[in-house]
Amino acid sequence: MTMRETPGTSQSSQNKPKQSLIADAFSSVSSYESTSTRHYEITDAITYHIAKDMVPVYTVSKEGFKKMVRTLDKRYKIPSRTHFNQVAIPKLYNECKMRVESELREIDHFATTTDLWSSRTTEPYISLTVHFITTNFELKTRCLQTSFFPGEHTGDNIAEEMRGALADWNLKEDQQVCMTTDNASNMIKALEVNGWTRLQYIGHRLHLAIENAVKGDSRISRATGVCKKLVCHFSHSWKKRVALEQAQKRLNLPVHGLITECQTRWGSRVLMINRILEQQKALREVLSEDRNTRHLILGYQVLDVLESVSKALGPLLEFTDALSGEDYVSVSHNKPVLSLFNTTILAPEEGDTDMTKSLKKKILEYLNSKYEERVTQELLDVASFLDPRYKTQYISVNDVPIIKARLVSEMKMMEHKHSVECRETRVEEVSPPPTKKAKKSLGSFFKRSTASATVPIDPTAAIEAELSAYMQSPTIDNDEDPLLWWRLTHKVNFPRLSNMARKYLCMQATSS
């Protein structure tokens, strides 16, 4: 304080040189060498960002991105766009492919899903995804490839493409449990050509069932047409959207926008209808203010139709979302869901309008007829049986012996195959060098007699005993994870059945 009060002190302190900051010191240092560890780390992180977030490669040449990188580390000099195109991204792809190939070498069985689709520029592609359960009962999904598919989309061409894809990844066709596809005729034909087991998307089948139910009903077509015009009007008018928001606040309604229908997603139609029913008071208030839009006000007849459609289809929305997951077991839900549709969700209720009853009936008839195929039924029964949440609960009494016989047969074949592989890979033991003969212990006299008295276990009896014990074990709660149940202790208690569970529970109920 004394020095501060002394005249001339402030002048001398100003002339005193300031200590440079660490950041400033580093900024004056030369850039990282392209072979340095730090340069590799940052380049790999940028490459991962491009691939994972699907960012265009030319992002690395944009001024904003360069400025951000310079701010984060002034010593790093970002490589050119060509480097990422020709070096960094191919290197990341090869590393990722090697990891996936390593995982695929460890699996015994797998299921696949495939679909044809078009990009935003209408270029045709075909995707192949593999699903499998590890020895530690972890369900994994790997999208193996999305290939440009410009040729004719015939069943023969698709079959050849799928066979080539499995061969490229060294996957054997006899390891494939089934392939889940949509119901397109060329997809069905492709699996027939290859002789592969097919499981139909339950999501796509439900979409077709609903489209079949509403088809031909002029009342529903007219009501949904009015809804589309209504949504289109508000989506093209900023003033109307602002007026709708103000009306929603005045009427204490949720401030929600209207929803547009997507032709390939039946659920979007239900969401559009539900949102319009929710906001009908606000919509009426806004539309009535303008003479040119009063014709869009929904009359009571249209509202009755929309309410009937919503009551019939609304409860099905949640099932579509639940069956579209790929991180958990979904195939074993098919039989329980179909049973629930028949007994509860789509069963006629008191208070249902004639239209609601008709829609429910048509959807049920369509779904039940499409799942009568014997191969599909047996595949779904096996999956349901191996799920400790359901077991035989949703399987017909007459079909239980068939499922048990199938599992016993497959477990015998698997055990025989395993024993043959063990004999083929057995290496002749090298006898140790002779050592000084040790004095025999008392227990050694009983070894030979005990070994000779051991009775070999009949494989069939052991398998049937394991199957019987599994059926007698209690089922678990529907919210529990069946893979966790198998993983903890039951893969030890039921070693053969656990392999069957890994084989069949990897199948996908649908694909999105």
TrEMBL record:
Cross-referenced InterPro entries: HATC_C_dom, RNaseH-like_sf, ZnF_BED_domain_contain
Coiled-coil spans in chain: none
Alphabetical list of SUPFAM superfamilies matching this protein: Hermes dimerisation domain, Ribonuclease H-like
Compositional bias per record (Polar residues), positions renumbered to this chain: 7-18
HAT C-terminal dimerisation domain residues: 466-511
Region (Disordered) location: 1-20
Organism: Cyprinus carpio carpio
Protein name: HAT C-terminal dimerisation domain-containing protein
GO molecular function per UniProt: protein dimerization activity
Superkingdom of origin organism: Eukaryota
PANTHER family from the UniProt entry: ZINC FINGER BED DOMAIN-CONTAINING PROTEIN 1-LIKE, ZINC FINGER BED DOMAIN-CONTAINING PROTEIN 4
